[in-house]
Amino acid sequence: MDVQALKKVAEQMVAPGKGILAADESNSTAGKRFEKIGIENTETNRRAYREMLFTAPNIGSYISGVIMYDETLRQSTEDGKTFISVLESEGVLPGIKVDGGTYDMESSPNEKLTKGLEGLPPRLAEYAQMGAKFTKWRAVVTIGEGIPTDANIRQNAKDLAAYAKMAQEAGLVPIVEPEVLMDADNTMEKCGEVSERVLTAVFEELKNAGVAIEGMVLKTNMIVPGKKSGETVSPEQVADATLALFKKILPDNLPGQAFLSGGQSEVDATANLNEMNKRGPYPWKLSFSYGRALQDSALMAWGGKRENVALAQVALIERAKKNSLATLGQYQGE
Asked: Which residues does 99 contact at the CB level (< 8 Å), separation at least 6?
């Protein structure tokens, strides 16, 4: 395991002024996105949509890496250039989601575990050979009546650590993504308590598995209230709670943490990130790895029509630029 090489890539992923585009929606999730704009969920449409995103002019100025789905990693533009080569020509690192989605935990069916560890090393070796530079694995933790249980938090942490170790052994930087879901009616305080339990367990298990912390990137949630709680919070409150937790738990040798948007609006995700970076610097970089919070405006502008590609690309770059400023604490609002 070449830790120095991993560290170099991890640092590139969270370089100041840049962040990661999460374009790793599974085919079924892509279908949900396409429903919003009334187009059919076909391979042709998925490919056309990803081509629109990846060929946006100047994408490499604001985006350090793109997380892709297996299908996408193997696709090419209409004129035959592989997506990997298109991204690399812009200085953007190609990445790949390697988990197999979630399933119900046997002892606690309202909680989820993530599948995909079986047969992972050969898949990682193939992705590395194809040109991927980093990987991602997502574990979800649900807040509810009597949950999350310690057993669920611990098993997800163990699986994240096992994946991260395998990724590093294949020469790929792991993005370790424990997500405390924001879908319930819980308070912001509850999100903070659960996130602390989760991150504590994750870093314990990463250590136990012998993962090189300096050769990975964390991707976790901000401390926010559940969507159904009716609680409204300011960027200052989100920053206070999130930074207090990170200062307590994140190791100084972690290159960076790239936030997930988790269903926040485009504007909230950017404003909250900006507020945190206004108060820096920290031992680790605070960046973004957004899906919907980078793509929503672009998806709506595109609408599945070839004649809207340039317009959609402008929308994507506009959003990426705002988040780029937020990584520097220089975003001025909309």
From this structure: 114, 115, 116, 136, 137, 138, 163
Question: For the CA atoms of the chain, what is the radius of gyration?
Answer: 19
pLDDT in tens, the chain (334 residues): 899 999 999 999 999 999 999 999 999 999 999 999 999 999 999 999 999 999 999 999 999 999 999 999 999 999 999 999 999 999 999 999 999 999 999 999 999 999 999 999 999 999 999 999 999 999 999 999 999 999 999 999 999 999 999 999 999 999 999 999 999 999 999 999 999 999 999 999 999 999 999 999 999 999 999 999 999 999 999 999 999 999 999 999 999 999 999 889 999 999 999 999 999 999 999 999 999 999 999 999 999 999 999 999 999 999 999 999 999 999 998 8
Of 65, 63, 74, whose CA–CA distance to 27 is shortest? 74
| CA angle, residues 212, 214, 190, in degrees to nearest 5 | 90
Calpha distance 292→317 (Å, rounded): 14
Domain assignments of the chain as residue spans, ordered by start: 3-327
Residues with a catalytic annotation lie at 177, 219
The total of other beta-carbon atoms located within 10 Å of residue 38's CB is 8
Cβ atoms within 10 Å of 178's Cβ, excluding its own: 23
Superfamily of domain 3-327: Aldolase class I (3.20.20.70)
Can you say whether residue 101 is alpha, beta or left, with left for phi > 0 and alpha for psi between -120 and 50 degrees? left
Q: Are 73 and 96 in contact (CB under 8 A)?
A: yes
Q: Are 94 and 66 in contact (CB under 8 A)?
A: yes
